[in-house]
Design goal:
By secondary structure, the chain is α/β, with parallel strands linked by helices. The protein is built from 3 helices and 9 strands; from the N terminus they run E-E-E-H-E-H-E-E-E-H-E-E. It has one domain: Rossmann fold (3-Layer(aba) Sandwich). The longest helix is centred in the middle third of the chain and has 10 residues. The relative contact order is 0.20.
Length: 200
């Protein structure tokens, strides 16, 4: 699959039959004027950092087929993309469950149409039931941590997911590092982790 006509999306060495209990993702949304109705080949500031995908391209991803009967998807969205993320997950056949995490980006403030933005949200979607057995049930929803590279999410969120689901099979889509215990899927899986081997 091509990302906006610029780079081929690489897959990991996972087999076609392999399915997961947990998928964690930060989709490469296309921002712009009424962003999620836009067509391909839109130039945005995000394109300077990584290739983005149109809503149609994201809908074509076989996320549901990559999940076990009982599974969860953790998806990052910005505030303006809340409905977009929910619509996308519904297209994949998933049910919205809750807001899993809220990341306060330290002291960084971004302009918005209504209020000054400083957070990103990680939504939780469900296929079937919550996969068992469950791990930690006392992880905090809120995290305040300074931003790092453009679009890079705090590693602590991934660690919280690991503690919540310690025995489950895990896949990170659109990954930019290759953490231990996870399969990864994307075209920049070594961007922030030079010492890790890409699983292609």
């Amino acid at each position: 699959m091509m990302l906006n006509g610029t780079k081929t999306l690489k897959k990991t060495n996972m087999t076609q039959e392999k399915k997961y209990d947990i998928i964690y993702m930060d989709p490469p949304w296309q921002y712009g004027s009424r962003f999620y109705h836009s067509e391909d080949n839109i130039s945005t500031i995000e394109e300077k950092h990584y290739p983005t995908m149109s809503m149609n391209e994201l809908k074509e991803l076989p996320v549901n087929k990559m999940l076990n009967q009982d599974a969860l998807v953790y998806m990052w969205v910005t505030s303006s993309f809340l409905q977009v993320g929910i619509d996308l997950a519904r297209h994949w056949g998933l049910t919205y469950s809750t807001i899993g995490f809220v990341w306060q980006k330290g002291s960084r403030i971004m302009p918005g149409y209504y209020t000054l933005g400083s957070t990103e949200i990680c939504l939780v979607f469900r296929k079937g039931k919550i996969p068992q057995p469950r791990g930690a049930r006392n992880e905090r929803q809120f995290l305040q941590e300074d931003i790092r590279e453009h679009s890079r999410k705090p590693d602590e969120i991934r660690r919280r997911i690991e503690r919540m689901h310690p025995t489950q099979s895990k896949l990170e889509m659109f990954a930019r590092t290759a953490p231990e215990g996870w399969d990864v899927w994307g075209n920049e899986t070594d961007k922030f982790d030079e010492n890790q081997t890409q699983l292609f």
